[in-house]
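Hi support team,

I'm filing this because I wasn't sure whether my run with 2'-monophosphoadenosine-5'-diphosphate finished correctly. The job status page said complete, but I'd like someone to confirm that the output block is well-formed before I use it downstream. Pasting the exact inputs I used:
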Amino acid sequence: MQNAGINELGLEWRYLAFDVHPLHLREAILGAKVMKFIGLNLTVPHKLLAVDMVDALDESALTFGAVNTVRFEAKDENGEWQPLRHFEGDVPEVVRSHGFNTDADALGRALREGLKLDLPRSRVLLLGAGGAGRAAALKLASERVHELYLVNRTAQKAEGVAKEIRERFPQVNVVLGYPKETVDLVLNATSLGLKPEDELPFDAKQFALDRTKSVYDMIYRPAETRLLMAAKEAGCAVANGLGMLLYQGAAALELWTGQQAPLAVMKQALEQEVYGGGSKVAATFGR
Ligand code: ATR
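And here is everything the job wrote out:
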């Protein structure tokens, strides 16, 4: 996805994957900085660790307590920090790492564009309160959803997330447990659905899919989880996590380049990479 985007923009850059042990993350970020990399993406568990390892944090990383994108920057002739691209090969020696979070906005965009949701007015049942669940809850709260229901296998973790939202977003009505009435969205942020034998991520005795208008599954492989299949059958609008993956990547590329990301090209490359261009892409980005 990133190399397709980079290529489309005519840049002589390469996006490469490095397997870094969490114990070496600080050195890896420092190494990329002194080698004047343009930027980095980080995945689990590095997103949380990197918050204490970069030189500056964007508001997005502060709000969600996680860094998935690093941009390396140096000072221009006016003393302003600029992305390294600005310097065209003649990069000053003093470089800083600047941490951003593009995941949270990507989720918002995927819900708005894939499911046509009007978040500030919606009622949402969020399944899962792990790393992804907490981040989704904070994003939904920051978008001022009308009502947020939290369910997690380990109730204590859902309570922790509810407490954090009540402190940071007191306007949002957070409820622990299943809604009694209909909701606009069920959002799966658990890992249930990754394996074919996995059960549905909610308790069918307490909730049924005909009580929601739409379902978003943060899982994108398989393209259609049991949850999304059941939701389609119940007549819900559905989308999987590929939209979120695409939009977080597009936002990262925009941070590095200062240019608009070529979304269609990146989307096509992503689908090809993840699904091999097979027929399983129907539910991907929503209706
Ligand atoms: P991630 O960073 O992907 O969110 P995580 O923090 O390990 O990963 O969270 C996994 C989520 O899936 C949690 O909400 C977890 O529930 P617990 O908090 O009770 O562990 C949920 N999950 C994983 N396996 C599950 C299962 N078999 N049944 C129900 N929920 C499950």
